[in-house]
Amino acid sequence: MKKFINDPGDVVAQALRGLAAAHPELRVDPENQLVVRADAPVRGKVGIVSGGGSGHEPLHGGFVGPGMLDAACAGEVFTSPVPDAILAATRAVDGGAGVLHIVKNYTGDVLNFEMAAELAGDDDITVETVLVDDDVAVQDSTWTAGRRGTGATVIVEKVTGALAEERASLKDVAAIGRTVNERSGSFAVALTAATTPAAGRPGFDLPDDEMEVGVGIHGEPGRRRAPLAPAADVAALMVDAILEAKPATGTAIVLLNGLGGTPLLELYLLYGEVAALLESRDVRIGRSLVGNYVTSLDMAGASLTICHADDEILRLWDAWVRTPGLRRGV
Amino acid sequence: MKKFINDPGDVVAQALRGLAAAHPELRVDPENQLVVRADAPVRGKVGIVSGGGSGHEPLHGGFVGPGMLDAACAGEVFTSPVPDAILAATRAVDGGAGVLHIVKNYTGDVLNFEMAAELAGDDDITVETVLVDDDVAVQDSTWTAGRRGTGATVIVEKVTGALAEERASLKDVAAIGRTVNERSGSFAVALTAATTPAAGRPGFDLPDDEMEVGVGIHGEPGRRRAPLAPAADVAALMVDAILEAKPATGTAIVLLNGLGGTPLLELYLLYGEVAALLESRDVRIGRSLVGNYVTSLDMAGASLTICHADDEILRLWDAWVRTPGLRRGV
Asked: Is residue A238 scored above 90 in pLDDT?
């Protein structure tokens, strides 16, 4: 295993110390593995909390800041955060208007966020939850009942964060988050497996001439193994899978996301193929984002997310945001 | 070789097609491998051109836009752009106030930018050049007489770009670029070698238990091979090497840069070690940036850049910028 770490058992807390050093505008608690925007709770604003296993950076801690998340809970690598941490985050961001939990659909995350929401209810904090399950590759998976939550999480976090800044109600913020999720589909292809610090070797075996089609962000199996294919073919199978599950309507926000080990040069090349295909399928790309946003450690691979947006979603996507991972307008 | 490409001989132009699709606010010419900001030339503003071999994305094309570069020339992977392309870029951004060339110190880049500057002179375009040679690891290298240009290029491009937006003279814009370079030192460590599409296999052999200390961004040899070490030790050897060559003065801009294949989780962990060390060495970190900015395709590794800034450099670093790779304030 070749990694910039000190101790495989203490990676997440040490990385959070680095996040704290790099971003004094955030309140980072490495011990409880929380990242909170410095001015939380914001009085009268819906607080937004997300979180999940680490190893997907910049998700979620890199999206904490004005215009997006109020707090993120970081679990150990590929492991859900504990209910106590989620409860602490919920309390830290409750400004009296309720708290939204954005939860990727993995069994551990769902259970722990549910438990934290119940405990927050005992504190008279109203919690609504948006479950993100955009990955159209498989119906159930290793750690999932139903579809997995992946790239659309970034769009849900951005759009709900923008609406919350406008002091919309918890009901409305949750509603637009659910709309974004319903209108989004994602599909990923892996060329290599990720190596977690704890395991010290790749999470699955993938021959040199094969790719995993429909892989999950923890290396969960996809639909099939297939021979390595040109980027144009990879783009086609991603686009086909997504548009079959989520047929085109309106203008799309398109996220071509690197899984961690794939260079930007390849991501742009792949995006060019995706864009040409979408044009031929009468999908209008209204906004796009190319880069590493929801990663799987050092996995070479990419995911495509298509969100069929309406004017309101586009407006909120365009709104100002200031986080380590996404910034515009400020 | 596992990459998202179609044809190993046509990677850069196809990636530029993707960049064009993702960034309609840029004028991208995939055939001549140019990226130009849409409103160029800006009348009365110094035009800023950089460029170099591809494979280091987001450098340079990802830094084209208001507040930073006016144009970038992309060579083939790890290959200098040709003089004709640099000349075309220089002409495209000449708004009557002269053009600055920002050139990383590699023999091919230096020669081709020199030739383009001469040809531009024949067109009565005044060209000044800032040579970036911040990599303190080795004095001469595979493709270099003198030190190599690496991470400081981002800071030079940002700071000169901001000053040019204020309509400063070519002389002043060049001068601050040179000052940033003189005040900056960089040092890189590789855990794996990059694989170019043309070669199809890693550019050098690196045993599973070793790292290349002082590596170049094309995989050029560094100072030595060393046994894999904890992140704290890697941070120490980077900081020591840089501060020995560029002793601390003033407030630092610190860039902890991923070389392409290293996850953000590790980069933040390594940054935490760097920040603690700099504090113990009485270096005040004024600004920081952690992520993939000057990469070497899929190389696992990281580089540290320390720029001992003055108030003017900090002010220009903080100024608004709108590029695919760096954005703030707009």
From this structure: yes
How close B15 comes to chain A (CA, Å)? 4
For residue B61, what is the DSSP state? G
Distance from the A262 Cα atom to the nearest Cα atom in chain B, whole angstroms: 6
Per DSSP (E only), the strands in A193-315 are 210-213, 224-227, 251-258, 284-291, 301-309
| B167 lies in the same domain as B301 | no
Identify whether A230 is preceded by a cis peptide bond (ω within 30 of 0).
Answer: no
In A19-48, the residues whose Cβ lies within 8 Å of chain B are 19-22
Same domain (yes/no): B176, B279: no
Interface membership of B261 toward A (CB under 8 Å): yes
Domains in chain B, number:
2
Q: B92 with B31, same domain?
A: yes
Q: Is residue B31 part of a domain?
A: yes
Q: Which domain holds residue B107?
A: 13-182
pLDDT in tens, A75-100: 999 999 999 999 999 999 999 999 99
Which residue type occupies B262?
T
Per CB-CB distance under 8 Å, the chain A contacts of B288 are: 21-22
Distance between B69 CA and the closest CA of chain A, angstroms:
18
Six token digits for residue A93: 């961001």
Tokens 């099939």, residue located: A224
Active site (catalytic) residues of B: 56, 218
Using 70 as the pLDDT threshold, list the residues of chain B that sit under it. none
Residue B296: which of B186, B202, B209, B177 has the closest Cα?
Answer: B202
Provide the CA B229 distance to its chain's centre, in angstroms.
26
* Confidence (pLDDT) at B141: 78
Give the residue ranges of DSSP H helices in chain B.
12-22, 83-93, 107-122, 152-165, 170-182, 231-245, 264-280, 311-318
Whole-number pLDDT of residue A48? 99
Collect all residues of chain A within an 8 Å Cβ-Cβ radius of residue B228.
2
Question: Which residues of A fall within a CB distance of 8 Å from B11?
Answer: 265, 269
Same domain as B171, residue B24: yes
Q: Tell me, what's the pLDDT at A214?
A: 97
CA-only gyration radius of chain B, Å: 19
DSSP β-ladder status, B251-258 and B301-309: antiparallel
- At residue A144, the pLDDT reads 81
* Residues of A with a known catalytic role: 56, 218
pLDDT score, position A91: 98
163-202 of B, contacting A, C-beta below 8 A: 191-192
Asked whether the predicted pLDDT for residue A51 surpasses 90, the reply is: yes
Q: Which residues share a beta bridge with A291?
A: A257
State the Cα–Cα distance between residues A103 and B137, nearest whole angstrom.
45
A:123-152 residues touching chain B, CB 8 A cutoff: none
Asked if A18 and B288 come within 8 Å (Cβ–Cβ), the reply is no
pLDDT per residue as tens digits for the range B224-279: 999 999 999 999 999 999 999 999 877 999 999 999 999 999 999 999 999 999 99
The answer on B230 and B171 residing in a single domain is no
Q: How far is B71 from chain A (nearest CA, A)?
A: 18
Whether the pLDDT of residue A57 is over 90: the answer is yes
Residues composing chain B: 330
From B7, B21, B263, residue closest to A271, measured CB to CB: B21
Question: Do B212 and B125 reside in the same domain of the chain?
Answer: no
